[in-house]
Write a structure and sequence with these properties.
This protein is an alpha/beta fold and 447 residues long. The chain contains 13 helices and eleven strands. It has a domain of 176 residues: 3-Layer(aba) Sandwich (Rossmann fold), CATH 3.40.50.1220. Strand 5 and strand 6 form a beta hairpin. The protein binds carba-nicotinamide-adenine-dinucleotide. Carba-nicotinamide-adenine-dinucleotide binds next to loops. This is NAD-dependent protein deacetylase sirtuin-3, mitochondrial.
Length: 447
């Protein structure tokens, strides 16, 4: 049994949280913190029911049932100015027999303009962005759950018993090949940040971004220049790698080299399989994730973009801003608390294609030209690779290094301790040198 799962199973309340594992969110999806009393040890230190991977499997099958009954996502996406049909929303619970069933339709209330007005009035100076795979589909990276194009709909080639097995740490321990096959497609290097990433970078440039919390593992936030101190990669990234068993760090470039060449990188300390520090189900979230306890109470605007809010504990973050704080959902369909009717006072959503929506938002804010200029200047630069080429170690491939002793210091990392920090410091992979949010966009990019 892995260490995370065992802590999840405990019935007794836990001491103040020091570590959190990734899980699906079938129970907490619609709940505010105050409503989670019956749930087991979780981010609020209250009892939370055990979450299993099969719960996610159930969610996924329920979702496909609901999608059959509704419009395809592409059609829903055409209705950006229309109220979303609860039964048409691929993420809606209303047609899934869920206890949280809503007869009425969540309404889009011209929220984009209202929020743009607040920003222009200077009322939003601590903006928190919560993002998911939907911000990167415009870069050509499929998300998980979009019917037809999402990774979960296209997993036949990985030969796995159920979709989320690909991110299950126990499954990986037994057979890393399915994840490594997927990793080859996801490894940073072949995709570029898109308009949405640069919009968030512009929020930072304007001095308004308190923090971006992303579930994405594609590294595009960093590539577009969002500085590390403004970014929480809650589900890790490919920028570092380590042994999945003893957590001994492993050179990320060598891990990439091995995986891209269909080899299995192995730990030089215990010979177990090395994996990129992407957070699997049942694994700890990075220590940096806990910044949310400071950030969310401070936020004066929350923007939620391109996520189905299905993965806990990340999904519940959106319920932790103050009740007076406006929340703006930009997505193809209503998700999480935005499926409730009526919407919470101060909640706004704009449904449709995310890139189109963000462009309109940027135009309302008068930022479009600056973003375009930023993107143009970025195009002329060679985007630095987050993971550099592996150093040549006397012709050895990483796989051949099995059994080679490491310097003793290599074991002295936080990762070798239970509940230790995972990926909190992204260390040498940093690309960002922008520390002054007011600095010139072009000059910071040319550095
Ligand atoms: P998800 O569950 O696939 O949800 C994505 C959401 O974005 C859905 O609600 C979509 O409808 C919406 N969406 C997708 N494309 C668009 C678009 N063009 N316009 C508007 N809305 C759109 O993915 P989540 O991020 O919610 O789930 C979390 C998982 C996904 C994390 O653990 C990630 O590691 C994982 N993931 C990441 C990537 C990446 O790094 N790019 C890719 C695939 C999966």
């Amino acid at each position: 049994m892995n260490r995370s799962r065992s802590s999840w199973d405990k019935k007794a309340p836990q001491p103040p949280v020091t570590r959190i594992t990734r899980s699906s969110s079938s129970q907490a999806r619609h709940t505010d913190p105050a409503e989670t009393k019956d749930s087991g040890p979780g981010i609020y230190g209250k009892q939370r029911k055990k979450q299993t991977d099969s719960a996610l499997a159930q969610d996924l099958s329920q979702m496909s049932v609901s999608e059959q009954g509704g419009l395809p996502a592409s059609h829903v996406g055409d209705c950006s100015s229309e109220p979303v049909q609860a039964g048409q929303s691929s993420g809606s619970r209303s047609d899934q027999g869920s206890p949280t069933t809503f007869a009425a339709k969540p309404k889009s209330r011209g929220g984009l303009a209202s929020v743009a007005r607040l920003v222009k009035l200077g009322r939003c100076k601590n903006v928190v962005v919560v993002a998911g795979a939907g911000i990167s589909t415009a870069s050509g990276i499929p998300d998980f759950r979009t019917p037809g194009t999402g990774l979960y709909a296209n997993l036949e080639k990985y030969n796995i018993p159920y979709p989320e097995a690909i991110f299950n740490i126990d499954y990986f321990s037994n057979d890393p090949q399915p994840f490594f096959s997927l990793a080859k497609a996801l490894y940073p290097g072949s995709h570029r940040p898109n308009y949405i990433h640069f919009f968030i970078r512009m929020l930072h440039h304007k001095g308004l971004l308190l923090r971006m919390y992303t579930q994405n593992i594609d590294g595009l936030e960093k590539l577009c220049g969002i500085p590390d101190d403004k970014l929480v990669e809650a589900h890790g990234s490919f920028a570092t790698a380590s042994c999945h068993l003893c957590y001994t760090p492993y050179p990320a470039a060598e891990a990439k080299h091995a995986i891209m060449n269909d080899n299995v990188p192995t730990c030089s300390f215990c010979a177990a399989t090395v994996k990129p520090d992407v957070v699997f189900f049942g694994e700890d979230l990075p220590q940096k994730y806990f910044l949310h306890t400071e950030d969310f109470p401070k936020a004066d605007l929350l923007i939620i973009m391109g996520t189905s809010l299905q993965i806990e504990p990340f999904a519940s973050l959106v319920n932790t801003v103050r009740s007076t704080v406006p929340r703006l959902l930009l997505n193809r369909h209503a998700v999480g608390p935005f499926e409730k009717v009526p919407l919470r006072r101060g909640d706004h959503m704009e449904l449709g294609d995310l890139e189109d929506t963000v462009r309109r938002f940027a135009e309302m804010l008068g930022w479009n030209d600056e973003i375009e200029e930023l993107m143009r200047s970025q195009e002329t630069l060679n985007i630095p690779a987050l993971i550099s080429s592996p150093p040549s170690v006397s012709g050895q491939t990483p796989c051949q290094s099995r059994g080679v002793s490491e310097p003793p210091g290599r074991m002295e990392t936080s990762k070798s301790r239970p509940g230790a920090q995972r990926g909190a410091s992204s260390g040498s992979e940093e690309t960002d040198s922008e520390t002054d949010s007011k600095s010139s966009v072009s000059s910071s990019l040319s550095n």
